[in-house]
């Protein structure tokens, strides 16, 4: 069995980097079609699959593209669809960037939970890739690795030179067989865990980097309403939703990037000070191994 949405979801908002307001309409899609974007504002409404091969930029967010068409900052929406059990979805968008909303995946995940899913009989088995040996990628002291495991687990570490963030580690597993089958019960557990532990964690940034990013033409849509900002004296816009909200958000980004594999690998994915670029490099290595 595969799953799609029971009815459509509509959402409008501003993109973090472009500052452009877009409208997103997520519609049910047939079995085997996967998750894919459609740029409904462009001639011939090009389709951009939510797959590793379509990634064409990873600076501060993950961008997918096909030909001239692209869609940016896909990670929070895709993490929500994948973890909430939506195998097939047609994501229509009328601009170049997914709305940031409150900076977390809460609104996407809540909307998916409220419309619900329908099962789709399918001959195609969406089995997990079982990892036989560790895979890792590294850049300086940052790394991401995937270790063979009995369960799907994500662990993340960050280390910032500001007291309010400092060193944080968090490990999240949806449960022993959550991803392994399309059985209703395990999917439900997984969705609940995502909704409460990961989805509410918001995007965060450091005050001293913000001006520099804005000068580079980035984060035009960022504000104190959609991102936690940390200065030398502490958070500018408390309260936090979790004491370790930043590292939980990193897990959200990691899960969103790895969702581009189609199904998550049955592995313990462990990341330290990583980035979208390293997350995607790991996904590429996992695919190479599967193909090789
Ligand atoms: Zn993020």
Automatic annotation (TrEMBL):
The active site is at 276 (proton donor). It comes from the Bacteria. Signal peptide: none annotated. One of its GO terms (cellular component) is membrane. GO terms for molecular function: acyltransferase activity; metal ion binding; UDP-3-O-acyl-N-acetylglucosamine deacetylase activity. One of its GO terms (biological process) is lipid A biosynthetic process. Keywords: Acyltransferase, Hydrolase, Lipid A biosynthesis, Lipid biosynthesis, Lipid metabolism, Metal-binding, Transferase, Zinc. SUPFAM superfamilies: Ribosomal protein S5 domain 2-like (SSF54211). Catalyzes the hydrolysis of UDP-3-O-myristoyl-N-acetylglucosamine to form UDP-3-O-myristoylglucosamine and acetate, the committed step in lipid A biosynthesis. This is UDP-3-O-acyl-N-acetylglucosamine deacetylase. The lineage of its organism: Bacteria, Bacillati, Cyanobacteriota, Cyanophyceae, Nostocales.
């Amino acid at each position: 069995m595969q799953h799609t949405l029971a009815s459509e979801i509509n959402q409008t908002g501003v993109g973090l980097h472009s500052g452009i307001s877009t409208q997103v309409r997520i519609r049910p899609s047939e079995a085997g079609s996967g998750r894919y974007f459609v740029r409904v504002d462009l001639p011939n409404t090009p389709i951009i699959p939510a797959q590793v091969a379509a990634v064409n930029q990873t600076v501060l967010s993950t961008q997918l593209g096909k030909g001239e068409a692209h869609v940016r900052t896909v990670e929070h929406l895709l993490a929500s669809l994948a973890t909430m059990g939506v195998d097939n979805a047609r994501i229509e968008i009328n601009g170049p960037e997914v709305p940031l909303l409150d900076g977390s995946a809460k609104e996407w995940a809540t909307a998916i939970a409220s419309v619900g899913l329908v099962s789709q009989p399918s001959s195609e088995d969406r089995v997990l890739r079982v990892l036989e040996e560790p895979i890792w990628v590294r850049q300086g002291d940052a790394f991401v690795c995937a270790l063979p495991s009995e369960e799907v687990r994500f662990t993340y570490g960050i280390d910032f030179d500001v007291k309010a963030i400092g060193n944080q580690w968090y490990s999240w597993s949806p449960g022993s067989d959550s991803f392994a089958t399309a059985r209703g019960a395990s999917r439900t557990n997984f969705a609940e865990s995502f909704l409460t532990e990961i989805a509410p964690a918001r995007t965060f940034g450091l005050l001293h980097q913000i001006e520099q990013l804005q000068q580079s033409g980035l984060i035009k849509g960022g504000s104190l309403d959609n991102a936690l900002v940390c200065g030398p004296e502490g958070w500018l816009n408390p309260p936090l939703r979790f004491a370790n909200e930043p590292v939980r958000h990193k897990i959200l980004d990691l899960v969103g990037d790895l969702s581009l594999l189609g199904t998550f690998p049955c592995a313990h994915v462990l990341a330290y000070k990583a980035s979208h670029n390293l997350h995607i490099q790991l996904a590429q290595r996992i695919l190479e191994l599967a193909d090789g």
